[in-house]
Specification:
This protein has 6 helices and 9 strands. A 7-stranded mixed beta sheet has the order 5-4-1-6-8-7-9, with helices on both faces. A two-stranded antiparallel ribbon has the order 2-3. α3 crosses α5.
Length: 194
Amino acid sequence: MIHAAILCGGLSSRMGEDKGIMPWQGSSMVADLIHKVTPYVHHAILSLRSEQDKVYRTLFHNQIIIPDLLELPCHGPLKGICSIHLAYPQDDLLVFACDMPYISTELINLLLKSRSEDVPKDAILFKHDGQIEPLLGIYSASGLQRITQMTLNGKINNYSLKYIIEILDTKFINVAKPFTNSFKNINQKQDLTK
């Protein structure tokens, strides 16, 4: 089984307000992403910091919401991913950053097709122009189990997803120029008009 893990727990410090609930195409970035990914997954799960919980439960009362687990010693996107993994340890996660509203459904299909056709991998991620895109990809339950245990046991002290990917058996899919807009993050208000 596969679930969407929509990571909403960033601090949005450059934006000055929570990016996930900002207006976007008649709804919000998170609502738009939920609508986009729901046909491909069993559940769309929102990952967030505990202080966001009340607002998100009010706005997205029909969604599964998993606040970051305080007992996890890691931080950043890895904390959200591991928190969801611990709630759904048998399931793979299709991971998205909530501030990537231009994600193409063609890329989602490409990830899922690769997952079903290839020899199982710990992660399936995109690469373009030599850059790895860790916040749009599939992370397997078995790979997440290993990373989560290593984190809990103090065997990982670099929580960057780019470092974590080096530990995992990862398949990279090279992406051509027309799709690179899918990886664009909205970090500042002026990014909304570009």
